[in-house]
Amino acid sequence: MRATYLYGAGDVRVIDVPDPRIEQPGDALVRVVRACVCGSDLHPYHSMAHTHDGASMGHEFIGVVDEVGAEVTAVRPGDFVIAPFAVSCGVCEFCRAGLQTSCVRGGFWNDAGLGTAGGQAEAVRVPLADGTLVPVPVDEHADEALLAALLTLSDVYGTGWHAAVRGGVTPGSTVTVIGDGAVGLLAVLSARQLGAERIVLMGRHTARTDLGREFGATDVVAERGDAGIAAVRELTTGGSPIVLEAVGHLPAYEQAVGIVRPGGVLSRVGVPQYEAAPIGFGSLFGPNITLTGGPAPVRAYLEQLLPAVLAGTVRPGRVFDRTVALDDTAKGYAAMDDRAALKVMVRP
Predict the structure, then answer these.
(1) Which of 13, 250, 336, 348 is spaced 20 to 30 Å from 5 by Cα?
(2) How many of the other CB atoms lie within 10 Å of CB of 226?
(3) Cβ–Cβ contacts within 10 Å for residue 339, how many?
(4) What domains can be seen in the chain, in order of their start residue?
């Protein structure tokens, strides 16, 4: 089969690899119907050292179950499924608590220890299928807009929702979202769904911030650094009570620290590309600011978010603005890296 591998910074190749097969009784084989490129995929795309063997890529996909192991009961061949970006057993203490990203038996796609490969491929072996996969009553030939919306539930919509939930968004909240990528825009959508009254979106790409306004942003701040901090603090009369950081780079975190109100919450879901960040007396401790967030347990939110997606009353799939064939996945990476595309869907 064909699968996407990264061999070093900027070196994306789609190559022939062995077909996946059932290895454990809890496995399922899923034929990928749609996958995509994530903003977090661009981090290794920028910085990964060259490797002879390459690394499989992709952690967001939807597809059809082709085969299941002897112990799988939750899905069966022919089921259309969503695969969250974390593999989880569904029964350990963390899964039962809705924290599937800390599953004691699970892990992530492209995980050598777990033996998983990436979703930017024609097919994927899914371990712990009963806990991981979510069957959906649709057909693989469903409307393209619905497929796009379902694909967001594998990561970016659930991650935006996680940011808003961990940030404590409730009816009437004032929220600032940092980042106009797919996660940031869907954090805006999520905050609006949770009842936020004022949503400030910090982003400087007009096509994206226009979509952010359609998703519910009431204000857009294009400035960065001190100018951006000053603009948000003026809009929010001294600082935002809730800040959702959806970028992952240190300047975005520092901007978040600069705009959060004393006693407020900073919810961080952008994958951190740094080790050290301000948390001391002058940044978070002194003003009694809560720092929260982390990798989203999207499996925990799927049943809650799915009905509105199926009904078409919420359309998170609008973040996809380009589709490429699997063999052209490298073009998708380049388009997102150049900011020529917001989020790229991959069609095997």
Answers:
(1) 250
(2) 10
(3) 12
(4) 2-155+297-347 (3.90.180.10), 158-293 (3.40.50.720)
